[in-house]
Amino acid sequence: MPKVRTSKTKFPEGWELIEPTLRELETKMREAEADNHEGKRKVESIWPIFRLSHQRSRYVYDLFYRRKAITRELYDFCLNEGYADKNLIAKWKKAGYERLCCLQCIQTRDHNFQTACLCRVPKNRLEPGKIVECTHCGCRGCASGDNNE
Questions:
Q1: Residues contacting residue 71 through CB under 8 Å, at least 6 positions apart
Q2: What Gene Ontology terms for biological process does this UniProt record contain (predicted)?
Q3: Which of 19-33, 71-85, 124-138 has the lowest mean pLDDT?
């Protein structure tokens, strides 16, 4: 979660362009945290939080690496202030992890048989018509070999 905004924080040039989107995602994050979790499995209650965190990090990543719309200074500011997950972005830059949903899916200590999550398996390797859903984040497939984005 982003740090508390104080008057001492100096925002870099270009911040006013991305601030409305980041504030909107922050508002959605607060709503997801306060959402009623009755009737859901324990793991399902945090899935919206994972999705919003992924969306916010992907937004900053796309602005800097794909569209080249923000400066390095603004990008570093977003990482340092917690607006994006720098560890997740570091994985996105590596081959095979371009569509990674969360870091828990690649941590082998969290899975049976010390392997990666089932959502990391390409869909063409699974049974036809089988719907896969990650227990950690609710992802339905983030393998880089999948054709659909």
A1: 12, 13, 14
A2: mRNA splicing, via spliceosome
A3: 124-138
